[in-house]
Amino acid sequence: MKKNSGWIKSVSICLAVLVVMMGAGFYLLFGDTETSFVSSKVEAAFSEQNKQSEEVEENGEDKESKDQSGSAEEESVEAKEVESIQEAVTEEEKEEEVEDNNELSEKDDQAKENDDRKDESENEDAGNDQTSDNQAVSQTTAPGIENPENAPETEIVEESVEPEPEPEPEPEPEVAEAVTYSWGATSSYTFRMEVALTNNGGSTANNVMVSVPLLENRSPYQTTSLRSVNYSQVSSSGRVSTFNLGNIAPGETKTIVADFDIAVRPVSINSSNDTIDKARGVFNKHAGSGNCRDLAWAFISEVRSMGIEAREVIGFARAQRGAMTTGSLQGTRHSWAEFYVEDLGWVPADLTFQYFGEFPHPSHIVESYEDQSISVNYNGGSLSASWSNAVH
């Protein structure tokens, strides 16, 4: 029994010596390789620190701890050797790492200065926050430089966009009131025109032809119609009619008598527009005393220069401001003006009576819009002509 136990002890001792020798051989054969392997892991840990911005030291230490714990789980002896190899990293390598970190720090400081120069024109507070954020990001890329745990986060402020104001509706153009006439009560008259031809010669005047301008019928405030004439018309052109009086003996007088029915209405315009305002300004400038025809033509000429159509009216008017009275119209021949208004027609303007845009009384009788004379053709003798007008 004793012999067996001694044998067992001898075997155990041999096995222990063998294990120790195997461990020593393993260390001699694989020690350098293990050191390179561990060094690679240490460098990988430092590279991992470059990618992680907020947990550089913690992640590095965790990585080393996890690597060591993994080695311990595989084999406790190898874990201990790994720890000793990690602690055996030479001071020279640490110094090189420190120098590298210092160079990176100097580059970061230079970048910070450049960023500060670019951001001088920006808002001071926003520029400082942005510079701090840029510095924090650059620090995380350099191993061994601490990243502040409570780095300020960039605040994103959403700008409120005010809605564009709706355009105000354009005002509708004002529609000018249409200019119209206001009419008074109509007054009716019989207008008589007489043209007398006398042969003052010693011989007979043969084939006497007389061309007589009749009353106008184009007035807005007067209507005219020929009632009768004592000679037959040979021809007519416009308002001019030609009559054949035959032969007139020496000292003989023959008279053409033409009667017209006329209706005259007082008139006034009830509003104004640009044309009327311009004409009124010219009227106020020239209206007053003076020769009626000269005043009328001063008004006509000036409004025509403004592009307003105008014309002269030749007719009759009593001196009193009232309705036309019966009797001879001798000495009542008169001139006034009319100007044209779009969509209305001809508007009267009597500068002598100072009636603008109105005739308050049936006081004016229109004879013509063009002053024309009596024309007489004959053979022999010596004729003279005279004419007269009257209201009955």
How would you describe this protein?
- The protein is α+β, with helices and mostly antiparallel strands and 392 residues long.
- The protein is 39% helix and 28% strand.
- The protein has 7 helices and 17 strands.
- It has a 5-stranded antiparallel sheet, with no helix packed on it. The chain has a 5-stranded antiparallel sheet with strand order 13-12-11-9-15.
- A hairpin with a 3-residue loop joins strand 11 (333-341) and strand 12 (345-350).
- Helix 1 (2-51) runs antiparallel to helix 2.
- It is rod-shaped, with a radius of gyration of 64 Å.
Write out key terms for the chains shown.
alpha+beta; 17 strands; five-stranded antiparallel β-sheet; 28% strand; 392 residues
Secondary structure blueprint with pairings:
Layout: H1 2-51, H2 56-74, H3 76-87, H4 91-118, H5 124-140, E1 181-183, E2 187-199, E3 205-213, E4 222-229, E5 233-237, E6 240-248, E7 253-264, E8 267-269, H6 274-286, H7 292-305, E9 310-317, E10 327-328, E11 333-341, E12 345-350, E13 355-356, E14 358-359, E15 364-368, E16 375-379, E17 383-391
Antiparallel strand pairs: 1-8, 2-7, 2-17, 3-6, 3-16, 4-7, 5-6, 8-14, 9-11, 9-15, 10-17, 11-12, 12-13
Strand content: 25-35%
Strand order of the largest sheet: 4-7-2-17-10
Number of helices: 7
Question: What is the first-to-last residue Cα distance?
Answer: 187 Å
Shape: rod-shaped
Low-confidence stretches: 32-42, 60-72, 134-148
What is the CA-atom radius of gyration, in angstroms? 64 Å
Overall average pLDDT: 77
> Please, what is the oligomeric state?
single chain
What level of helicity do the residues show?
Answer: 25-40%
